[in-house]
Amino acid sequence: WGGQPYRDCMACTDFILSQYQYLNADKVGALGASYGGYMINWINGHDQEKKFKCLVNHDGIFGLKNLYYTTEEQWFPEWEFGIPYVTNPSDESKKDSRFNPDDANASKTGPSQYELYDPSLFVDQWETPTLVIQGCKDYRVVETEGIATFTALQRKGIESRFLVFPDENHWCLKAQNSMQWYLTVTQWLEKFLK
Q1: How far apart are CA 31 and CA 40, in angstroms?
Q2: Any idea what DSSP says for residue 140?
Q3: Which helix (H) or strand (E) holds 47?
Q4: Nearest Cα residue to 10 out of 38, 43, 34, 37
Q5: Which residue numbers are catalytic?
Q6: What is the per-residue pLDDT across 105-134, written as a single tens digit (0 to 9) for each?
Q7: Could you tell me which of 3, 141, 138, 128 has the C-alpha nearest to residue 64?
């Protein structure tokens, strides 16, 4: 999740900026929903070059372990990560620099992907202003994930805003809410990228 997909996102951003000279590399933002919202939190903890001036996270995952125990869709995390505390590390997690099978203090199986790819474990690296959007009837990525993301941003003193839709689920489907979503996102992007 935070391995090759993250590297692909960053390489794609670099490629696009190098290919289109009319783009301003000093005015780049990133937006994501669902898994994309997870990626926004991952980017915030890993973008050492600070490519993005602002971020937008819609119904994104803050903590992978907590998500496992709160989502109504356990098939995806079990298929991709296994059951927490039970499975061996995947080949992708073994590529992570923190995985060291020779570490005497490591568990017999090493860290799981739940530890390796959990955005909440990298909050200390967060710096980018972030708009967090959350539907309260989202049972795939429950509202506490959005609250946790916003709380982390606020406690770190990072400019942030929290837009909550009490009557929406994983997506914003009602007309008035959709208009509010687009207005808020547009204003956030204009604030940092104009």
Answers
A1: 7
A2: S
A3: none
A4: 43
A5: 34, 138, 170
A6: 444 445 677 888 999 999 999 999 999 999
A7: 141
